[in-house]
Design a protein that fits this description.
Elements: E1 13-17, E2 37-41, E3 61-65, E4 85-87, E5 109-111, E6 133-135, E7 157-159, E8 181-183
Parallel strand pairs: 1-2, 2-3, 3-4, 4-5, 5-6, 6-7, 7-8
Length: about 200
């Protein structure tokens, strides 16, 4: 991608794996406006995504796994309005989600396993209500779950293995009526369970 005019605009799927010297993507990636799937695995030197990445309006599936130097997502990441599947497993230097993250209203699958530096703002999930799978295992700095997690009426799996600082579950967690699996192993500071846990009849 030497220039924007040379970009193969009909590309629908982009897979990049085990490219340890890849640090950044060219701005022209924003011209790939037919992209629906991006998989970037074990690019251990990739530390950022260009703001032009957020022009990919058809992007529904994004994997950025084991990109250990990635510390921030683009400010307008929430412009990726078609995003349904987001996998950030092993992005161990990711510190926070952008303010616009709450605009990913179609998001169904979110994997943040091993994002051990990550902490949430109180409204990161304010407009997100369609999650079916949510993995926070190994997010060692989280002391509490996102405030709006109990709005996820479709949530089926909630994985919290190794969330070492987690002290309590939301009082209204019983509202997650479709929850079939919850893993809370190795949460040594957890002090108890809310009464509403008994309302999770699908577990």
């Amino acid at each position: 991608m030497e220039a924007e005019s040379d970009a193969p605009v009909q590309l629908r799927e982009l897979i990049i794996s085990h490219c340890p010297k890849l640090q950044r993507f060219p701005k022209s990636i924003g011209c790939l406006n037919e992209l629906k799937t991006i998989v970037i695995k074990a690019c251990s030197n990739t530390d950022s995504l260009p703001k032009e990445f957020c022009r990919l309006k058809l992007l529904g599936h994004l994997e950025l796994s084991d990109c250990k130097k990635l510390s921030l997502l683009p400010r307008r990441f929430g412009d990726l309005a078609n995003m349904r599947y987001l996998d950030l497993v092993g992005c161990s230097n990711l510190k926070e989600l952008p303010v616009s993250f709450k605009n990913l209203v179609l998001l169904q699958f979110l994997n943040l396993k091993g994002c051990k530096e990550l902490i949430f703002r109180s409204d990161d999930f304010q407009n997100i209500t369609k999650l079916e799978f949510f993995n926070l295992s190994g997010c060692a700095k989280l002391g509490e779950l996102p405030r709006d997690i109990t709005n996820q009426a479709s949530l089926k799996e909630l994985l919290l293995d190794g969330v070492e600082r987690l002290r309590e579950l939301p009082i209204q967690i019983g509202q997650l009526s479709r929850l079939r699996k919850m893993d809370i192993r190795r949460s040594d500071l957890l002090i108890g369970f809310p009464n509403s846990l008994g309302d999770l009849s699908s577990l």
